[in-house]
Amino acid sequence: MVKVENTVVVNAPQEKVFFVASDFESWPEFMPSYKEVKITRRTEDKMIIERMGEVRGKPVFWKSEVILEPPKMIKARQVEGPIPDMDIEWLFEEVEGGTKIILVHSFEHKKVPLIGAKIPLIGGMIGRLIAAKIVRRMAQETLEAIKRRIEDGK
Fold it and tell me: CA angle, corner 104, sides to 99 and 109, nearest 5?
């Protein structure tokens, strides 16, 4: 199991931070790597979100089941996309000076295409390291974009 954790502190109340982070359809307005985000189904406590984005200049599609627990938590599971069955948890903690967002991605990643096709064990380890590095970078970019959106209005 690979676990990647990112954090940021936002100078704003928990409710506002949660609102901006959970307004998924507005993400393309302030996160260039997200080209389109659509909520395709919504019930009282769950939604299905489809995202088109770009990773390293290549188009990527994600589909996630998301549960909102305002204003403290967002839970998601990627059901389609580059890392299927990835669990994502957003925690929003009140701290002095604002709100700390803790973003945790947990996933099993057996193999990245073309890496380790001939040497599965080594390829699997390298694949996990590469996947973790990409997830860590994208997660931090997402958190920093939310912070800028709230603190600077950008």
Answer: 165
- CATH number, domain with residue 63: 3.30.530.20
Number of CB atoms found within 10 A of residue 55's CB: 12
112 lies in which domain range? 2-152
Q: How crowded is the C-beta side of 138, counted as CA atoms within 13 Å?
A: 17
Q: Which tens digits make up the pLDDT trace of 77-121?
A: 999 988 878 999 999 999 999 999 999 999 886 634 444 444 454
User: For the chain, where are the alpha helices, taking DSSP H only?
Assistant: 14-22, 27-30, 120-152
CA dist 98 and 54 (Å) reads 31
Q: Which amino acid is at 87?
A: D
Instruction: Please give the tally of structural domains in the chain.
Output: 1
